[in-house]
Amino acid sequence: MVVAPLAGGARLFITSATIAGAKYARGCKDNNTIMTTNNTQNVASMSAARNPSPNAPPTKHRDGFELISRQPIQWQSAPTVTASNNQLSIPSFHDITYHISLDDQCARIAFDRPEVLHAFRPQTIREIQQALELATEDGRVGCIILASNNLSKYTPAFCAGGDQTVRSNDGGYQDGTETAPKLRVLDLQVQMRRCPKPIIAVVDGYAIGGGHILHMVADITIASDRSVFGQTGPRMGSFDAGYGSTHMARLIGQKRAREVWFLCNFYDAKEAKEMGLINAYYPTSELEGRVAQWVRRVIMNSPTAIACCKAALNADEDGGAGIMQMGGELTRMFYMSKESQEGRDAFLQKRAPQFRSKL
């Protein structure tokens, strides 16, 4: 057994392989259990990184984040979802892939057109919408990753925006799957905002144009150190006057957003982090493990609290629709209370409700 010091004076008793700068005991009950100086602790516990000393100095490592495993998530093809005794079949996708991890309670939706830098066409967006709906409805999923499948023979990319080969002269995009040309990606942006589960964009390579906007609309962006960000619309006769402009200005400020749109310059991961466009970036070799670490911390936290926080943060930008989303989360919680249930029961039993008796 090896004793490893943690910041702030705490110690960790190590019994096996290194993961995430901390190590997990293979004999523990689950992958979230560690051995500390105090006792066996679950990494999700607020006490996991507690220094038992009564005069321990303050440290940011008290949050226990660095105790979380960085072992890459193991994905499997999504098994059939069962909801209210009805089976939701998983469609066959062509432009994307869809996987879930039951262990980490996460879904992964990935662009799968590496030969065109994962540029999207209407079919691509429709498939992402379908996959996002599946992940939203699946009670086994608490966090959603939006990523890309890169191959070594192609330049790495997250998404290069709309596929210009199917851009129509009649407005929007048409690849033969639309009844009329439209900007379907705008519907996806709204769907991502309305999804109560956190969406993490994992960027590895180019996030350009409409792809850049999709990562901004996601709740969190984690990138590789070889990633590049930027807008190209004004150089190609296009623009996004919705979230692509307004949300960007909220993220990086009006002056910088105007620079991004007016100059159409590109920015590396370090610059994007400094601007506030992304949350973090890591070496490419560490990206999957770091994403897993973030996902596991999200899953440890209250899903209702996260859903309400997301709705509240969106409400500031989304006006009445955003307030409606936040109100819906509050109503859902109220339905769980004895007071609300008393109203339903009194109606069904044809009697006067006794609300105050349930407070």
From TrEMBL:
One of its GO terms (molecular function) is 1,4-dihydroxy-2-naphthoyl-CoA synthase activity. Keywords: Lyase. One of its GO terms (biological process) is menaquinone biosynthetic process. Transmembrane segments: none annotated. InterPro entries: DHNA-CoA_synthase_MenB (IPR010198), Enoyl-CoA_hyd/isom_CS (IPR018376), Enoyl-CoA_hydra/iso (IPR001753). HAMAP family: MenB. Belongs to the enoyl-CoA hydratase/isomerase family. This is Naphthoate synthase. The lineage of its organism: Eukaryota, Sar, Stramenopiles, Ochrophyta, Bacillariophyta.
